# Entry
Amino acid sequence: MFGSIGWLPNTVKARLYQNDACFGTWINSSSPTIVDYLRHLKFDWFLIDTEHAPVNQETMVHLLQLIGDSQVVPIVRVGANDQYLIKLALDCGARGIIVPLINSKEEAERAVSFSKYPPNGVRGVGPVRAHRYGLDFGSYLRAANQDILVVGQIETNEALQHVDEILQVEGLDVAFFGPSDMTMSLGLIDDRTNPRVIEAMKLVVESCKKHGKIPGILTVTTQETKTAIDLGFKFIGLSSDMRFVASGAKEFLKVVGRA
# Structure
């Protein structure tokens, strides 16, 4: 049974382990207004991107505060497999962590350890927002190791070669396929539908089935979303806030001949 942390239980993690598909989107804009709008739609989770987007620590906290007052589960992608970055995101209230560039079993073990309190890991304890600055201190500490969703990104050819070893790591919940980085790693530039990429996606899904993990992916077109669902992905990102803005603008510009 998954614990309840703070104001809401981590419904996404519970549903994923019940084999339900959960759909979210990438937050790249750092705009509270856009996030405030999107949180009223039927997304299951938001990913605050601190790896590639210009989201600093203060903005991350403000977005987590905003998302926390909704049914959406907030997740943070950290910039690196770093103990401080993972601890900070979780302390600020992230309910899940996405760690980029997991290429080996040892790297996956480190990501899990940084995300868990002792005896399961090395996460430090402090008076933080995640447990309402002490109001839910005991309940948070008891539930956090089970409740936090730990996601490792499989996005290089090296990771593909070690995917079965990586997915044997206890405490890693989701193997998140990174299509863009994978295409570059395979020597394919901006060719996300290449048969070699599709085969890599299938390999990750099959390895997840073998080891009891959840396959995840980010899709940027509706056709990619349909393909991901058909292949068996369960933790699926639906584009991003900035792509939503851009696609809407392009549709209107197309009508007036300025696409």
Remarks:
- The longest helix spans residues 195-211.
